[in-house]
Write a structure and sequence with these properties.
alpha+beta; seven-stranded mixed sheet; about 15% strand; globular; disordered C terminus
Length: about 325
């Protein structure tokens, strides 16, 4: 069950945080990323978290100290956390990446999903908002505010938060249908903070996110919603023109589905956005039919828990949607 995998991902994240908090000079831990933002799709590959170090314990670290790079302290944290995790997951391994420590558990739950944990070792800043986070490749520290990102995405009433999370999940699924995803999941989340109107239907909000996101990207890279980091970079090899064209293409197709007068036309439009999910064929209940019937179980099975209710505002003639 996906709910079981999600619970396990959170449990693994909490385990990593618990051992990280026992590291000397640990100030606090926090959750981040798609699991914390409730925008995760299946398969659930990882959960993100962070550990904030107290600069009073490590005055030499970072731009506010003696410019000591993050590599040694991140490696020490990786060793510390892995030793604790292996008490419960004997086959666990870890790897220091550019930004985070990747903890792999090597115990699949269902033969396929084996969620890992990414742990960022952050450092308090002497001045200004946010944290210093590692860039082990440079090596250096960069300003960022993952805690504020999570607050911005979750600081809504329940219905508005659920609505926006569903739209983000569907936008992520749409973008990943292409051979080369043209924007990151975080980029979509940042755009959604500004562009998703929870008074609209799911389909209308998805259309607006994609089309308005294309317009914004045509003018420039998406700003950091916390106002701390540089604008959000596009994936390697992707230009703004490529990203703009792809988001516009997806948004135009959703717009056609929203305005469709019959199920077949809506399905044809949706098939261009979600080709892996529109089944079609004789005797097969397609995703379009599931949308029409509000078959939440089937839609959720395709896109992940909470991705239900992608439906035309006209509901193919039903104005009550």
């Amino acid at each position: 069950m996906d709910d079981d995998v999600l619970r396990e991902a959170k449990a693994r994240r909490n385990l990593v945080k618990r051992h990280a908090r026992s590291f000397p000079g640990a100030l606090k831990t926090f959750d981040s990323g798609s699991v914390a933002h409730a925008t995760v799709n299946k398969p659930i590959s990882d959960a993100d978290a962070g550990l904030v170090l107290d600069r009073r314990t490590y005055p030499e670290l970072g731009p506010d100290g003696n410019d000591v790079p993050p590599n040694a302290i991140v490696t020490a944290m990786a060793d510390h956390v892995l030793a604790g995790v292996r008490e419960e997951y004997a086959q666990a391994t870890c790897e220091v990446l550019k930004r985070a420590i990747l903890v792999k558990f090597n115990e699949p739950l269902d033969g396929e999903q084996d969620p890992s944990v990414d742990l960022i070792v952050a450092l308090t800043r002497a001045e200004g908002p946010g944290r210093w986070i590692p860039n082990t490749e440079r090596p250096d520290w960069d300003a960022s505010d993952p805690e504020e990102h999570t607050r911005l995405l979750n600081d809504l009433d329940v219905s508005a938060r659920v609505h926006r999370a569903r739209v983000i999940r569907l936008a992520k699924a749409a973008v990943k249908q292409g051979e080369t995803p043209v924007v990151s999941s975080f980029n979509l989340e940042a755009l959604a903070i500004e562009l998703v109107d929870w008074d609209s239907t799911i389909a209308e909000s998805l259309r607006d996110l994609l089309l308005d996101g294309a317009r914004q990207l045509s003018a420039g890279l998406t700003p950091d919603p916390a106002g701390v980091s540089d604008p959000i970079k596009l994936p390697d090899g992707v230009t703004r023109a490529m990203a703009t064209a792809r988001l516009r293409e997806l948004g135009d197709a959703i717009a056609q589905a929203v305005e469709a007068d019959d199920l077949g036309a809506a399905e044809d439009a949706l098939a261009r956005v979600f080709p892996d999910y529109i089944a079609g064929g004789s005797g097969t209940r397609s995703l379009g039919d599931a949308l029409l019937r509000q078959d939440r179980t089937r839609i959720g099975a395709a896109f992940g828990v909470g991705a239900e209710e992608l439906k035309s505002s006209r509901a193919y003639g039903d104005e009550t949607c």
